[in-house]
Hints:
Bound molecules: SN-glycerol-3-phosphate, calcium ion
CATH architecture: Alpha-Beta Barrel
Distance between the termini: 14 Å
Number of domains: 1
Number of helices: 14
Amino acid sequence: MSRARRLRATVAAVAVAVPLSLAVPAAVPATAAPRPPAPEPGTALADDLLVVGHRGASGYRPEHTLASYELAARMGADYIEPDVVSTEDGVLVARHENEISGTTDVASRPEFASRRTTKVIDGAPLTGWFTEDFTLAELRTLRAVERLPEVREENTLYDGLYQVPTLDEVLELRARLTKELRREIGVYVETKHPTYFDGIGLSLEEPLMTDLREARVHKHTSPVFIQSFETANLRELGEKGVRVPLVQLLSGSGQPYDFTAAGDPRTYADLTTAEGLQEIAGYAEGVGPEKNQVIPREADGTLGTSTTLVDDAHRAGLLVHPYTFRNENVFLPPALRDGAEADDYGRALEEHLTFWEAGIDGMFTDNPDTGVVSRDLFETDAP
Ligand code: G3P
Ligand code: CA
């Protein structure tokens, strides 16, 4: 029996024995949406350890461009990861946030100067240009730029070359590369700011379901995950009959914005307890924690001892896909840095291997090639 099959059998046995008892304030319905049917073995929740190309291969190309996604797949990523937001005309496009001055050339476009504005997004004021103020046709006139030019100067070579892709285009790319590479390339979609978009009449869930259905990747066997830092939209997707597996993103601080909006005092820390994970298992198939929630950093800059998160999540029947693995020193634990510069590569493989050994089921990485090498090393050495 493979590792994940053993896990599935174990957690199924344990899950029935553990009560659902996370305290839920009266204002929030305590009943979870019915859990989607478990995927068949060897399908969407494959037995394999997954490498997810975070925003594509964003260590090498401007993030959330077709070029970034394609490179990730060619480097061996199992899944490519589009974050999605809405345009004014309700089309889902791939951006990490709806404010686009950091990842496009919009600020240099005089024709859009008057669109610069200040909004409150998830409770915080933000000034810039927002996707929901652009039709798709207008957005298509913009070009992507590198978000982190100081760390990833090489990526600026590609500034100005690529458009902001629609989710439809990402799904088409997925299908094309699946055929060409003769292996299934998955899509790991994240809905960004779902409560905010609901509030301005541009709900993300319905177009997402339509796009998946039209691309014929809407079944529980489809190579798709849907992830969110909020909770209500994931429950809503389950209630609307979405069959692909759902993943609850977690964070080392704060609370889901839908909790904030509903006056629910619970935090991500509450969701990360053993009881919280049992609650999540009522509507999701996995969790995506910040990597420090899996293995915290010690004061001396080394990686510390694993928390109980992985074991607790597995006991609840949840996969664990932490974020975000990156090769550059600035993102690594100080003890694994190498060289003097923030953008020098450090000992990322050591970090990766420590996390595989901690029992994670997959990882989000800006450097999918490194992720694949680390997984190969881990699987070669694993007993
Ligand atoms: O979705 C996993 C990871 O991408 C979450 O962080 O902020 O990069 O979307 P973020
Ligand atoms: Ca994401």
